[in-house]
Amino acid sequence: MPLYKTITVNNTTKVLIWKIEESYEFLSDGISLTNHCQKRVDGMKSDIHRRGFMSVRHLLNQAGYTDHDLYYDDKGKPHLKDDKHISITHSFIFSAIIISDQEVGIDIEKQRQKILKIAHKFTPIQEYRTLANDDAVMRKLTMVWGAKESLYKSFARKGVSFLEHIYVEDFRFEDMQSTAEVSFEDKEETYDVWFLEFEGFTCAYALISEKIR
């Protein structure tokens, strides 16, 4: 079973990443889904989406949970019945979860040059003009997008704009971490964000900051 990586963020927060190499049938074997989740996976036309969905259930098992411990609210945000916080992501051949006592978010993105074409929709692109080349810009933009996606999942309010309401503090590649803020209507949160790059993918995961604000 290809549990690709486990990251202990702190005493109560863990990230688990899966490399999806198995067939849907293999991943389905021995996994019991709720009626809601069975309907979801049955409605998926893409094989990689179905395999990603099932690989997440294996990650849940690795963390000591089953699909029956998981439920979704009216915004589509996942929760665990023991009141721990969870966030879920899958992209192509990788999936991941983060589980914590605190509010969290996670995202995996494939590194692709096309992100340069949409960057203006989620961040001021002029901030990246000092980077060495297009590859460096692509890597940085993918990190920023992943960070904002993970915060968006955690914050979970309709109407939040990546460009207007989520800010990621600039960071150096060698640091592989940053801080970020989400401010929308009457709610404001500060997060710590970490980055991980592997096999042409970028993972970003965020945790509510414990620093005094």
What does this structure look like?
The chain is an alpha+beta fold. Helices cover 28% and strands 34% of the residues. The protein is built from six helices and eleven strands. A five-stranded antiparallel β-sheet has the order 7-11-10-9-8. Strands 1-2-6-5 form a four-stranded antiparallel β-sheet, with helices on both faces. Strands 3-4 form a two-stranded antiparallel ribbon. A hairpin with a 2-residue loop joins strand 9 and strand 10. The longest helix has 22 residues. The radius of gyration is 17 Å and the shape is globular. It starts with a strand and ends in a 5-residue tail after the last strand. The relative contact order is 0.15. The mean pLDDT is 92.
